Amino acid sequence: MKLVLFRQGAGEPQPGILTERGVVSIAGATQQSYTPQLTMQGIIDDYDSLRPALERLAAEGKAVALADVKLMPPLPRPGKILACIANYWEHAQREARPLSMFLKNPDAVVGPGDTIVLPEFTIPWMFMHEAELAIVIKGPAKMVKQANWRDAVFGYTTMIDVSARGNGRHTWPSGPPASWLGKSFDTFAPLGPCITTADEITEPNDLVVRFWNDGQLRHNYNTDDMEHRVPELIEFATMVMTLNSGDVIACGTNHEGLGAIQDGEKVEIEIQGIGKMALDVTDPLKRTWERGVYMGADSTNPEAVKRHRPQ
């Protein structure tokens, strides 16, 4: 099932199911809360009991054409966004790097059709895309072992980890290391277009992730390339902190195919089994960088999904 948040016209945000027929509202079958985020968290918590009614609605409910609604981020304000640092076998490297994560600003979330706004800073940064699979948590989850990782996973969505790179990436602007700051500007965490429930994705470590910038394919990799796979990410994160329903773990990216994003461009992310969303990019300062792939060229070929993970 593909769960969404959407708005029709000037109406209030409401939860729905994305089907082949269009978007079906499930507002009448679910408990509406004070905020859209809390409404979605309630659906996650109650999904097992709600599922029969939601399946009937998906099959028989009135559908609105996708073109007639505005999709919103399916989790507008997660309690926590944990993001992996690197986490992919790249450039034929043969030793796994230590697993590490950082907290990304939950207020940075935007959704399908929204705009990534580059910040008005004169620090010599380049702003780049990182297309990532994101795990949506069903909580509370604490000390979850790898053998039981599925207990903590509600579903999956896509995230673009927009990142500042360059001389200023590791300092702010001249203080201690603080990489997360360059990844936490407003609009730097696009999520969407939906949450695909876990039952529809048998193996999260076998999905193709693609990203386009103005039609140029950049990221093109398989999640089988993760250095540390989804079960390990769940165990690691829940060892550190309690994860609650609606929290997100972004699984990191394959940096091959990385490039700049800049004013006037349109970016698109697509993950197999989840879907595709597009956003615009704007820069009040109208900066420009060399267009194209910044690190490696393997991922720009649609046939070049490579698996560097040691056997």
Fold blueprint:
Layout (H helix, E strand, L loop, with lengths): L1 E6 L6 E6 L2 E4 L10 H25 L2 E2 L5 E3 L8 E4 L16 E4 L4 E2 L4 E3 L7 E4 L2 E7 L15 E8 L2 E4 L22 E9 L10 E6 L2 E7 L7 H11 L7 E3 L7 E2 L6 E6 L3 E8 L10 E3 L16
Parallel strand pairs: 6-17, 8-14, 9-20
Antiparallel strand pairs: 1-2, 1-5, 1-14, 2-3, 3-4, 6-7, 10-13, 11-12, 11-17, 12-14, 15-16, 15-19, 18-21, 19-20
Helix % is 10-25%
Net shape: globular
Alpha plus pi helix count: 2
Class by alpha and beta content: mainly beta
Question: How much strand?
Answer: 25-35%
Within the CATH hierarchy, at the fold level, what is the topology of the largest domain? Fumarylacetoacetate hydrolase, domain 2
Instruction: State Rg.
Output: 19 Å
Distance between the termini: 33 Å
Mean pLDDT: 90
Second CATH tier, the architecture of the largest domain: Alpha-Beta Complex
Instruction: Give the beta-strand count.
Output: 21
How many independent structural domains?
2
Topology as H/E string? Answer: EEEHEEEEEEEEEEEEEHEEEEE
Instruction: Identify low-pLDDT runs.
Output: 168-178, 297-301
Q: Outline the biggest β-sheet.
A: 12 strands, mixed
Structural commentary:
This protein has two helices and 21 strands. The chain is mainly beta and 311 residues long. It has two domains: 71 residues, no CATH class; 220 residues, Fumarylacetoacetase-like, C-terminal domain (Fumarylacetoacetate hydrolase, domain 2), CATH 3.90.850.10. Strands 1, 2, 3, 4, 5, 6, 7, 8, 11, 12, 14 and 17 form a twelve-stranded mixed sheet that branches. A five-stranded mixed sheet has the order 9-20-19-15-16, with no helix packed on it. About 5% of the residues have low confidence.
